[in-house]
């Protein structure tokens, strides 16, 4: 079933009675060529690209809850490619290009909105750092513009320009950045994978990984044993538990990150704005809610909900930057479980077990990586060699120290990102 | 969340700074092979449930604390001074 303007119109005129479920609900088969553990954005994108780019369709995606019920449904929907370090730079650049073609590729409206992302700077040093980052982005072939204070003021007249502690010196603008409808991304990839023959199996928790002579032979699940030649782990905050089923420990600690949304308002914030000094970022959803967030709560947690001190901090940062939103009421808040790697960068690699592949460590930046991560992970699983833009996301960098990617320059150790 | 500092009593979470898994107390010997050091520095059990981690009472007595707590419910089971915990 393809979506088109004509189809939507026809359905609208006939009471929307012709729509059918967009994917099947199959029972697991006893054996697949490839099993993907995790039916979130990254897992579904992996299955989609395995089918589309590599012609592999004897695949199951196993999801312990419902599709897209994890971090892909619990983020602030920001898409960008403004990284500076080699490794990250080429990867997110590739991912952003996939975002730009996603709706056509999936025939699904993911509401990709390239409304521009502006990172504000508040000191000479920060402006210099942004100039350098902007140059790195342009060298990568992406867009970046350094704005001065007057240019920022023209675009964002409602910020507090009289703040003495955090004066606004300017900003780094990436016009191709923006937001997308988070759930639609998961649904679009799910539908695309299902159409190509991938089995999406929900309420199916993996309880064991079967190994034989150093290679993977299948998985044990809450819906029975499933044999598989290759298994991919892509479970974000739960990476530690799933990897432990194969006897592995990872350089990952799971933390909670909160986000908030206000009541629906008339359009007022046109872009994505980040306030690094207060660690705060905000955009307005198409429904009108202000979607915003801050930093981690900074302690290991699987609670998927945060504590009040960070909520208070985020509200303070909001009021510092844009007092104009002070009267908007917060509608709800939520927390996601972030797979924080010790250098703050992701892992897409083989493991010590033959046929077992790992995709994790997305920290608090997994959403914008969904298409790139799926594409590169599919390439690795299908061809047994890394996809070039993701080739530096190696697992062994934590042993050798070679290629550690400390994007924020805070140190390649836990709890510093 | 509140932690009961053995020196200061029950205090708000904001007074404490999280310092990571208590595995950091088990520092390898100077002659340990590089793999052991790398594993100690980077690899974590990352349990969903009972865990033991280090907190620094930054805005209080500045003691380092070993806290046993639950990462799913945020329940705190015990808080003790690292010095006495480490002496065992």
From TrEMBL, chain A:
Q: Any keyword rRNA-binding? A: no
Tell me which domain of life the UniProt entry assigns to the organism this sequence originates from.
Bacteria
Subcellular compartments: Cytoplasm
What are the BP-aspect GO terms?
Answer: tetrahydrofolate metabolic process
Question: Cross-referenced InterPro entries, in alphabetical order?
Answer: FAD-dep_OxRdtase, FAD/NAD-bd_sf, Rhodanese-like_dom, SoxB
Q: Where are the transmembrane segments?
A: none
Spell out the protein name for this chain: Sarcosine oxidase subunit beta
Q: Which organism is it from?
A: Antarctobacter heliothermus
TrEMBL record, chain B:
Q: Give the domain of life.
A: Bacteria
What is the protein name for this chain?
Sarcosine oxidase subunit delta
One record GO biological process: tetrahydrofolate metabolic process
Where would you find the membrane-spanning parts of this chain?
none
Mention one GO molecular function.
sarcosine oxidase activity
